[in-house]
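for the record, two folds in this file. i put them one after another cuz i was lazy. first one right below, seq on top, C-alpha cells after. the second one comes after a little note so u can tell where it starts
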Amino acid sequence: MFNYIIVGAGSAGCVLAARLTENPNISVCLLEAGGPDNSVFIHAPAGVAAMLPTKINNWAFETIPQQGLNGRKGYQPRGKTLGGCSSTNAMLYVRGNKWDYDNWSALGNNGWSYEEVLPYFKKSEGNEYFSNQYHNQDGPLGVSNATAASNTNDMFIASCQEQGLKHNDDYNGVEQEGCFMYQRTVKNGERCSAAKAFLTPNLSRPNLTVITHALTEKVLFEGKKAVGIRYKKDKQSVDIHCDKEVILSGGAFGSPQVLMLSGVGPKEHLQDKQVPLVHHLAGVGQNLQDHIDYVQTYRVASSDDTFGLSLKGGTSMLKSMFEWKNKRSGKVTSTLAESGAFFSTQENVVAPDAQLVFVPGIVDDHARTVNFGHGYSCHITVLRPDSTGVVKLKSNNPEDPLAIDPKFFDNEKDLELIKRGAKKMRAILESTPFDGIRQKLLFPLEKGDELALEQDIRNRSDTQYHPACTCKMGSENDVMAVVDHELKVHGIKGIRVADASIMPKLVSGNTNAPTIMIGEKAADMILADYEASL
C-alpha cells in the first residue's frame, strides 16, 4: 500500500515524485510505460535527431487523416522513457506569455494567474545566465545558453532585425516579443530532463518506488473513489493500491486514455467501446489543442557550420562525438533548434501569435525523409490555435493506439495566421545576412502565389509537438472541464490529473517548462491536503 500512485514519469510526474517524497513519511509509486533513461541519444543533446523520427524512446503516434492537411495523417512523437518528452524533445526552455496564465485565471481557475505561477517556474529553474525577479539559479532544472552554436544563428537574428524585430535576450522575462538565442534545458553539456533534474538524484529514497515498462491498464475504483492502479508488466497484470490519491501524469494522450479505460469519460463513447461506466464526464479527451507548424528550408553549400549529410558533415560530426564523449563540449551539445523569435502577425492581438524556430540544417517531415547536403530551416508556429480536436479510444484494450484527431486548420483563422507568418518568415530567410550562403528552396514556391502557399502549407505542415488541453481545468459549470483548479477530477474522489492535459488553453510557446511548473504547483497542493489530513 502506497500513499500516492503517479501514472507517467514525464515532465510533471518526475517533479511530483521528487517533491512528494521530500517528506519521508509519504510513500510514492511512480509507474512508467517506457524504460529507463540510459540511452546516449537522450543525454547527448543532438541525439534528438535520432529519436524524433524513430521509435527510440518514442511512442511515435499517428493522427487520423486530417482534412486540413489534404488527408494526410499527422505524426505525434511522444517520449516513452523516464522523463517522458523532456527526455526526447529539443530542450527549448520557454514558459509562454504572461497573458496565457492571466487568461487561465480569468476563465475561473483561481491560483493560476501569472503572478501565482511565476514562483513555481522559478522554483524549478537553475539558470546559468539570468538571476532576477523572473529567474532563479538554484533550482534542479539546468537552464543554459547555447554552446557551439552555428554562425548561421547570427545571420538569422540579424535578418530578423532587418525585418523589424527587436533583439530580446530574455523572452521569459519582462517581454516575450523579439528575436533571440533560445535557452535550453542543458547542463554540463548534457540534456537536463525532468528525470535527470528531479528523479535520478532521489532514486535511493526508501519511500520512492519506480516501476518501468509498466503499462497502466485502468484506475481501480471503490464506488467513485480511486483506490489504486492495475498495470501490465512482463505480460502480467498487477494491482497496487494507495490510501491517498492516484495522480495521472500521462500527458495529453495518456491521461484521458487512462480515464476513459477506467470508465470516466463521455458516456456514449465508453458504451460504444464496451467500457463499464464509473462516471460520465463529457470533456475527457475533448478540447485537444496543438501547435500547427510549417517549415521552409534553403540549401547551402556544404559547411562545417551547419548539420548535414555529406562526407564533410559526417567527418565533422564524428570528431564532435569524440569531443562530446571526452569533454562534453562541441556540436553534439547543440539542441539543433538554436535561435528563434516571437512576433505578432497582425495588430491588436493580446500577445505574440507566432513563433519562429531556426535550425542550422535541413528539416523535412520530422527528419523522417533523408536529404543529402546542407541547409538552414525555420519553423513558423501558430501559438494560440482556434482549432480544437479530440482524443478517443479505438477499443477497450490499453495496448491499442488512440484515435488522435487534432482537426488541424478546422478553423480557417489558423490557416490565415500561418500564411501571414510564413510570408514574414520567408522575408527573414531571404534577407541580406543570408545572401552569402543561401541557395535554392528545398521545396520551390513562387513568391506571391497565395494558392501555392496554401497548398504547400496543407501538404507539409504538422505538429510542433505540443498537444495539450484534453483534461481541461475549469469549474463544474463548464461541461467540458475535467479537473478543478486544484486538478481534482470532477465528480470522483482520490484522483487528480497533473500534466499538459489540464491546460484550459494552450500556452503561447513550448510546453515542457509549463508542464514542469504544473507538476510543482500540483505537488504543493497535494502536500497541503496531506498536512491538513493529519
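(here's the note) second protein begins now
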Amino acid sequence: MTSAAQSRAASRPARNSRPSSGVSAGHSARNRGGQQSGRPAANRTARPPRANRSTPTAARGPFDDLPITIVDTENPPTFTELGLAPQLTTALSRAGIETPFPVQIATIPDAVAGRDVLGRAATGAGKTLAFGLPMIARLEGTDARPRRPRGLVLVPTRELAMQVVDALTPLANTRDLSLRLVAGGLPIAKQISSLVKGVDIVVATPGRLEDLIARRACDLSDVQITVLDEADHMADLGFLPVVRRLLDQTPSGGQRLLFSATLDGDVATLVTKYLTDPVIKALALPTAAVTTMEHHVFTTDLGDKFPLITRIAARDGRTILFTRTKYGAERLSDNLRKVGVSAAPLHGGRTQSQRNRALAAFKDGSVSALVATDVAARGIHVDDVTLVVHVDPPADEKDYLHRSGRTARAGESGRVVTIATPADERPVRQLLKAAGVQPTEHRVSPEAPVVSDVTGARSPSGVALPKQLGGATPAPTRSAGGDRHGRPQSGRPAYGSRPQRSERGGRGARSARPSADGGAPGTRRDRQM
C-alpha cells in the first residue's frame, strides 16, 4: 500500500491481517524466527460447479467463526502509542502516514511485544506496515552476520515481494537496517552477493530462497522474526511443503506473524504446528462483502462478449481485466490495442522486466487497462483502481475474492463486474453465493445504457495503438476454433477462444470463457519462485 492510499483512508476503517506461526512459548520475552521456501508441489483446488451440480458451500475451517476484532476508528491511537519509536513515527509522518489503519491498531502492539500474531483481514488494508513496523522496531540495534538474515518475510509472488520491499525500505533505512529482495526471475548473482555480505531482512518467494539455501548462500538459523504474507495464496500455489521445510530451519523460539485474507484448512495446519499461543485478530470475514465495493453480473450473448469488453476497457480510469489463461491475456490486450484501447498484459509467462514495465505503465497512467491472470492477482497493489472485470469467471470463490480485492482498497470505493454468457449464468450465481456476494444482475448488449451507467463504458477510438512494452505473444495452437495463425473463425470472440493451457494448468481451458457447463480447467498454477 502506498503512503498516498494510507493517507486518504486514514479516517476510514480498513481491513487486513494475516496469520502467523510459532513453535515455542514465552513470546513476550524472546524473539523467534521462521522461514519458508522451496518448489511447490502441484496443488489441485475445487472446480467451479457444473450446471447440473447443487449449489456449493464454502469450505469451512477452524478459524471461520472467529469473533470480529473491533478497533476504535473514531479516536484511533497514534503510532507512538502503539509502541513504535519516535524515529519511525517521524518517518511515517514524512511519508504522509499519520493515522494507523485498523489492522495496524489491532496487531502492532502484540507484535512489538514479541507475541506470535495470527491475522485475518481483507486485502488492501495496510498489513505490510502491520508486520513491517514491528519487525523493524525489534531488529534495530544489532547487525546481521554474513549469510544469516535476522528477519524474513515470505510471500507467494515476485510482484508482492517487490511491493513489500518498496514499502519497507525507506523505513528500515531510518533504523540502519538493510533489506534484500530474493525472488525468481531476478539476477541470482546479486542476491547471493548481498546475502554473503549480510542482510538484516530478506523478503523472499519460497522457491528462490530454498535454492539459495541449497547453494549455501543463506542460513536461517539466526532468524528472529518470520512473516508469512498471503499465507492462503501460498497454500493455493502448493508452497506449504516448502514453507514447512523452511520454518523447520529457523530457531524454534522465533517470533512468527502470519497474515492472510482467508484461514482455511491448509493455513490452519501451519497455525497449529508452528504458532505458539498466538494472538488472533480477525478484522474481516472471508467474503467480498466490502461496503465500498459494488458487484454486478453482465450476461451477454457470446458474440457480443468482445464488443462489450472493448467498450468497458475504453472507459476513463484504471481498469483491471482478469482472464483465465496467459494466452487469453496476451490475445485480449493485443486486440484491445488494435481498436484504440491502451492495454498491457500481466501474467506468469512474461519476463520480470516486462511485468515491471506493465505495472509501471499502469501506475503512471500511460496504460489504462491491465489484462491479468490469477497468478498476478495478488501482486497488483495499485491505488485508484476503480473497476475490476472478470472477463473469464474465476475458478472458485477464493479467486473471486482476490481478483476483486484489487479495487475498493483501504476504504476507497470500487466496482466489480463479472461477464457471463447464458451458459455461465447458473455456475456464476453459485460461485458468487459461495463468495458471500449478492450481485446486481443485468442482461445486456454492448451498447446498453446500464453498461455505461455502471462502468463508464464508451466506444474506443478505433485507431490502432502500437504494441507496447515489448515481448512476444505466446504461440497460438491449432484448434477447431481458429486457423493456424490464431485468427478466430466466424462467430467466435476476437481473442483467445481456442482451447489453451490455462495458467493454472490443464488442457482444453478456454481463455475467452469457461466451458458451457461451467467447469473450470485444471488448477495447477504457474510457479512464481
